[in-house]
Amino acid sequence: MSPDGQPAAAAAIFVGHFTMPRGTTFTTHWHTFHQLAWSAKGLLRLRSEQGAWLLPPSLALWIPAGLPHTTEAAGDTVMRSPYVDPASCPHIDWTEPTVVSVGPLLQALIDHLVRTDLAPEARSRAEAVLLDVLHPVPVTSVSVTEPRDPRARTVARALAADPADGRPLSAWGAEVGASGRTLARLFVTETGLAFGQWREQLRMQAAMPFLAEGLPLESVARRVGYASASSFVAAFRRIVGLTPRQYFPVRD
């Protein structure tokens, strides 16, 4: 990698390899190359103006060149990110962050391209195959905006601390000094979501680390406010686009 943190010019793809203890954060930055943000181990949290993603090793995020983003290790993480010269992949026209699946072949190719002793011809062949096996998956980013108004913000922070709290806004209103109708209006105007939608997004976000730990679905459902595993799975699939087990496959 060059001194400015960009891939070496001789390769179309360079794989950056970083060990990131939990909480390690790369504040807002961007690259002149496309990035495929992937963790071989642990969880990556990525944010941009387009959304927020929590990615296990089964998923990676294609980040177009020039797009500002932040990267955080949500657990002890080994990050292996291919950086791709835009000139090498004119057929990939993704202008927004795009989630891709990481199966055994793509993982093996990334691991292979970490090597610095590959002959130019061997590297070029592996790079071409890697670009051919990038397959987007229909995953919706899950993120919540905290309201600015102190009354609505109090509700939001209490629910972030206990996503299973199912009290309606009318009950919260008595606690924070606002009517339920006022709180409902504040959530819409300050987060862009109706309160029920906002709470569902929050619950999905809260569920991700539990799912990554491999907790049983019944346990995760109860922790984030669902009466059963089936109702949680249905909500997760409707909001995220995959089932929990598709998003976090059980690994041997």
Automatic annotation (TrEMBL):
<dbReference type="InterPro" id="IPR018060">
    <property type="entry name" value="HTH_AraC"/>
</dbReference>
<keyword id="KW-0678">Repressor</keyword>
<keyword id="KW-0238">DNA-binding</keyword>
<dbReference type="InterPro" id="IPR003313">
    <property type="entry name" value="AraC-bd"/>
</dbReference>
<dbReference type="InterPro" id="IPR020449">
    <property type="entry name" value="Tscrpt_reg_AraC-type_HTH"/>
</dbReference>
<keyword id="KW-0804">Transcription</keyword>
<dbReference type="InterPro" id="IPR018062">
    <property type="entry name" value="HTH_AraC-typ_CS"/>
</dbReference>
<dbReference type="Pfam" id="PF12833">
    <property type="entry name" value="HTH_18"/>
</dbReference>
<protein>
    <recommendedName>
        <fullName>HTH-type transcriptional regulator RipA</fullName>
    </recommendedName>
</protein>
<dbReference type="GO" id="GO:0043565">
    <property type="term" value="F:sequence-specific DNA binding"/>
</dbReference>
<dbReference type="InterPro" id="IPR014710">
    <property type="entry name" value="RmlC-like_jellyroll"/>
</dbReference>
<dbReference type="InterPro" id="IPR009057">
    <property type="entry name" value="Homeodomain-like_sf"/>
</dbReference>
<feature type="domain" description="HTH araC/xylS-type">
    <location>
        <begin position="153"/>
        <end position="250"/>
    </location>
</feature>
<dbReference type="GO" id="GO:0003700">
    <property type="term" value="F:DNA-binding transcription factor activity"/>
</dbReference>
<dbReference type="InterPro" id="IPR011051">
    <property type="entry name" value="RmlC_Cupin_sf"/>
</dbReference>
<dbReference type="Pfam" id="PF02311">
    <property type="entry name" value="AraC_binding"/>
</dbReference>
<keyword id="KW-0805">Transcription regulation</keyword>
